Amino acid sequence: MRVLVTGLWICAVTILSCYGAVTWGGGFFAKKTEPYLEGLQYQKLAPINIPMIADGKVQGYVVTVLVFTADAKLMHTLPVPPNAFVIDEAFRQIYSDPAIDFRKLAKYDIN
Question: Is there a domain that residue 1 lies in?
């Protein structure tokens, strides 16, 4: 009988200590929310190299540094960072614009 009571006592203490650790430690392990700034957020992307192909040959490379601004509240609610989409769209704009002559490149502003 004494062994049975001791076993029940150990189980009760273990369960209560686990419950206490979970409820007391809940604040320590909770994910902290990062405050966001109101207004616009400035994002500067890493430089990318775009090969310029004309007449079936690589004529050279264009090195671009892309910068965009977005609403800070919107940026913190997006599930995926928009950086890859901005780079992809810039790449497509450079190649699809017929006004760009790869042999005579000048400064170009992507809308």
Answer: yes
Q: Is residue 82 part of a domain?
A: yes
- To which H or E segment does residue 21 belong? helix 2-24
Contact 49, 39 (CB under 8 A): no
Do 55 and 76 sit in the same domain of this protein? yes
- Which residues face 61 on adjacent strands? 51
What Rg, from alpha-carbon coordinates, does the chain have? Answer: 29
Range of the domain at 90: 34-98
Q: Do both 17 and 49 map to the same domain?
A: no
> Which value, to the nearest 10 degrees, does the dihedral of the CA atoms of residues 86, 89, 91, 95 take?
-160
Question: What residues pair up with 53 in beta bridges, in sequence order?
Answer: 58
Q: For 65-91, what is each residue's pLDDT tens digit? A: 888 888 888 888 888 888 888 888 888
Q: Which two tokens stand for residue 8?
A: 């029940």
Residue 95, token pair as written in the block = 């190649």
38 and 61: one domain?
yes
String of DSSP letters for 60-96: EEEEE--EEEEEHHHHHH-SS-THHHHHHHHHHHHHH
